[in-house]
Amino acid sequence: MTGLFRFLKGCLRIRFSGDSGERLLNLCAIRGIELWDLICRDGMVYAWIRVDDFRKLRPIVRKTRVKVAVLEKDGLPFLFPRIMRQWSFLLGALLALVFWIASSFFLWEINCNGNVQITKDQLLSFLKTHGIEIGDPIAELDLSWLERELRKEFPQIIWTSMKRDGTRLIIDVKENDLVERETQMNSTEKVGTNLVSSYDGKVVSLIVREGVPKVKIGDTVTEGQVLVEGAIPILADDGSIRDYVFVNADADVCLEHLIKYTDSVELTHLEKKYTGRERKDYFVSFFGQRLMLKFQGIFHKETEIMETWSPAVFEKLEIPIILGRIRHDEYLLVMEKYGKEEEEALISEKIMEILETFVEKGVQIVGKDVKIDTKDGVVYVYGEFVVQETLHGNTGTEE
Amino acid sequence: MGLDSDQGHSDKRSLERCQRKNRRAMKHGGNAYERDFLADRLRIPDEIAKGTMRLTFTGNGLAYVENYERILEYSEHGIRLLGKKGKIRLAGEKLRIEYYTCDDMMIKGIFREFYWEERD
Predict the structure, then answer these.
(1) Greater confidence, A251 or A398?
(2) B29 vs chain A: nearest CA distance in angstroms?
(3) To pair with A224 at 20 to 30 A between CA atoms, which of A41, A139, A189, B59?
(4) Please, which pLDDT band fits residue B29 given cuts at 50, 70 and 90?
(5) Distance CA A291, CA A304 (A)
(6) In this complex, do A37 and B102 lie within 8 Å of one another by their Cβ atoms?
(7) A41 Cα to chain B: minimum distance (Å)
(8) Candidates A26, A37, A41; nearest CB to B71
(9) Mutate which of A16, A39, A40 to disrupt the B interface (most B C-beta within 10 Å)?
(10) Interatomic CA distance for residues A94 and A101, integer angstroms
(11) Is A45 touching B (CB cutoff 8 A)?
């Protein structure tokens, strides 16, 4: 505590020499002048003294005829001696403080978490329609009302939480991914649906959970043919149909069918050749307004890489100032021809892509036949895949 | 007789002189005796009752002095201090006064010797 007090007041390292050094020490003690860390070396005494005490030392020095020299200055008054005297610095510091405090009363950032179906733009436009935009006073936000409105506006949101974090508004939402399916099912509940074939092919397996099967294993079906009917007949005692119960046909029907695939790859292509020339532009963006600092040099064709940096004060206060740099790299478009190895890699990549789409769909490949033909600098790929694909209850249905 | 009477007069005068001296002594120093007597009976430490110097050493590197009156001499190799009843001299190397007030003082360094001198 004493050290802090001394630092705030400021202290001096002094050296005094003369015959009456001891007398000076005694007079200092009597008059309450504090000296500390006294070292005697070569007949001279070195000591620390507070700045305000140093002023009181003058009459004692005169009385004792001791020579005093200041060797070192330490403490806050000496830390920024010139800056503290500059009124412009003090004014700037004051304005910065006022700006910082004033900025903390406004909303500067909106973060959305947990949204998948609803985009951030949708959420921002929702906030805009409810009168909330970046730069609005943060104290006026009625978060509970906003949460209710958000749930009303987007029925797929089953839970939402809005909170303020400094000058940031954080919106956490949880969406119901079954809502789309449920609404579809609810809308067709009273009508019932059939399961129809999407391809021409042969039935390999059939599992019916709901509905009346219209085909059996081994049957050949055409596209659009009803596989499982959603109208279940209710028979009268005499065997005649009295009524129908309409259901959504629910079955797993595995169809074996043929998929034809054609693709082409051009052996020549345009390639970017970087010349090595580059240019850097700098900019400052304030409230969406960008001030560019451009340098000479216009390139015919160029790629742009933008790097931005937003200064954040104490991580809580986001200031809408963005500093950035745009790097332009010049390139030329050159017509290039693929080599033999590149060509093969490109074709196999194309085939692998189609095979991956089959795997994603859950399609099982039973047989394949791929032909490659080159004509006029273009490689054509012809493929025929025999696949087994399962049609589920809610695919390929009709009312 | 005459002689006797002269001697008798001179004895009487010397007795009166002694009595006056004793009375003067009692007048000036009597309180001190009473104070010492009381301090002894009440077991008050000397540095409080008589204001004598108190010197505390911690090893040979730190000394703490209380009830001193004045610094008589200060150098790298020795410090002399004046107290009410006498003077002390601390001798050693690299002696440094950590802090001091008009009552107490903390000295650091390497202490080698310590002397006590009677007050003049």
Answers:
(1) A251
(2) 29
(3) A189
(4) low
(5) 17
(6) no
(7) 6
(8) A26
(9) A40
(10) 11
(11) yes
Q: Both tokens of residue A213?
A: 């099967």
DSSP label at residue B64 = E
Task: Look up residue A362 and give its DSSP letter.
Answer: T
pLDDT tens digit sequence for A170-210: 999 988 876 555 555 555 455 678 888 888 889 988 888 88
- What pairs with residue A264 in β-bridges? A380
> Binning pLDDT at 50, 70 and 90, where does residue B1 land?
very low
What is the ipTM for the molecules in this complex? 0.70
Could you report how far apart the first and last alpha carbons of chain B are, in Å? 49
| Residue B29 near residue B79 (C-beta atoms within 8 A) | no
Size of interface A-B (CB pairs under 8 A): 42
Tens of pLDDT, residue by residue over A118-171, are: 888 888 899 889 888 888 888 888 888 889 888 888 888 888 998 888 888 899
First to last CA, chain A: 86
| A385 touches A365 (CB < 8 A) | yes
Q: Does A171 touch chain B (CB under 8 A)?
A: no
In this structure, what are the phi and psi dihedrals at residue A395, rounded to the nearest 5 degrees? -115, 140
The tokens for A393 are 């209850």
Burial class (CB in 10 A: 0-12, 13-18, 19+), A145: exposed
The angle at the Cα of A172, spanning A170 to A175, to the nearest 5 degrees, equals 155
Model confidence, pTM? 0.40
Residue (of A67, A70, A53, A34) closest to B97 by Cα position: A34
A333: left (phi > 0), else alpha (psi -120 to 50), else beta? Answer: beta
Summarize pLDDT for A22-71 with one digit per residue, the tens: 999 999 999 999 999 999 988 899 999 999 899 899 999 998 989 999 99
Please check whether residue A2 touches B, CB under 8 A: no
Element holding B40 (H helix, E strand): helix B2-42
User: How close does chain B come to A80, measured CA to CA in Å?
Assistant: 29
Contact status, residue B105 vs residue B65, Cβ threshold 8 Å: yes
Query: Residues with Cβ < 8 Å from B69, sequence gap 6 or more?
Result: B81, B82, B83, B84
The answer to whether B70 contacts chain A (CB < 8 Å) is: yes
Do B99 and A47 meet the contact criterion of CB atoms below 8 Å apart? no
Q: Could you give the C-alpha distances from B105 to B56, B66, B78, in angstroms and in order? A: 11, 7, 14
Q: C-alpha distances in angstroms, A143 versus A77, A102, A152, A163?
A: 48, 22, 14, 7
Residues A217, A207 contacting (CB under 8 angstroms)? no
Task: Mark yes or no for CB contact A40/B73 under 8 Å.
Answer: no
Look up residue A215 and give its two tokens. Answer: 């085909």
Distances, alpha carbon A134 to alpha carbons A149, A152, A287, A357, A385, in Å:
19, 23, 9, 43, 55
pLDDT tens for A313-330 read: 655 566 677 888 888 888
